[in-house]
Prior knowledge:
- The structure is a single chain.
- The protein is mainly alpha-helical and 150 residues long.
- The chain is 61% helix and 3% strand.
- Strands 1-2 form a two-stranded antiparallel ribbon.
- It is globular and about 40 Å long.
Amino acid sequence: MPLVPAKKSWTTGLFDCAAEPSGESFCLYACFCTVCAYGRNVELMEPGELVFFGGNCAAACCSYYLVNLFTGCPCMLHMLARGYIREKYNIPGDSFEDILITWCCIPCALCQEHRELIIRGHKPGGTCTSPKLMKKTTQQCTSATTQRSS
């Protein structure tokens, strides 16, 4: 049975690391290859003000690695990506909470964010396939085609 996105909250808990849809495999991935797990999450996000290199896994991995290498604190970058998810889906919380979670519980945060993005229909490249967005996009494409035909 598919999970239904929660309204104004995280669909799964912070410590539900092995929960579906990503399961144990992404949990292990986040523990042993944090840089790559961060990159996979950012690949699912749209580019924007809060997400550096949204939709691009390789660039996100490199930025996370370099921030970690030069500052030792990649949680600053990760905090922005987590904040993006919170703001996009009106999930309560603040930047202080985000930085604490991304500093103290990096693999747990990555797993929770990955599950949330998958449940809400995000796909690689920063596209979202939620039914509401697809309907709106289809209407825009249809009206644009109609205008060009006239």
